[in-house]
Write a structure and sequence with these properties.
This protein is of the alpha+beta class. It has a single domain, classed as Type I PLP-dependent aspartate aminotransferase-like (Major domain) (Aspartate Aminotransferase, domain 2, 3-Layer(aba) Sandwich), CATH 3.40.640.10. The protein contains six helices and three strands; from the N terminus they run H-E-H-E-H-E-H-H-H. It has a three-stranded mixed beta sheet. Strand 1, helix 2 and strand 2 form a beta-alpha-beta unit. 3% of the residues are buried.
Length: 117
Amino acid sequence: MQRIWKTAKIVTGTKILILSDETYAPILFEGYEHQSIARYPKLAERTYIISGFSKLLNTDSWQISYCLAPEKLMNEYRKMQHFQIMSVGLPFQIALALYLRQKNNDSATISNLQMKR
């Protein structure tokens, strides 16, 4: 709770947005109650809450998550998400360009995959 008040103090009067990772929120011990930042209206209006099911269901490889935010923030989030899933990040593009320029001998990789079959 103290952290939430400190966060509120920092962001008040600014345009700072909050990203709250609440993936572990459902996993509570010893009677504790999750204190989502969304409980506080002045903070909720500037907060993206990210969560998912992988920790609770022990399914890390599924990588299914979700984002909650006020509508005006979600409109911006959707734009960003669209570009992230519709394009390849620059570091990967550079790495693949370097790979394609080299005369690579992929026989070791292919042999390794063949042995795993």
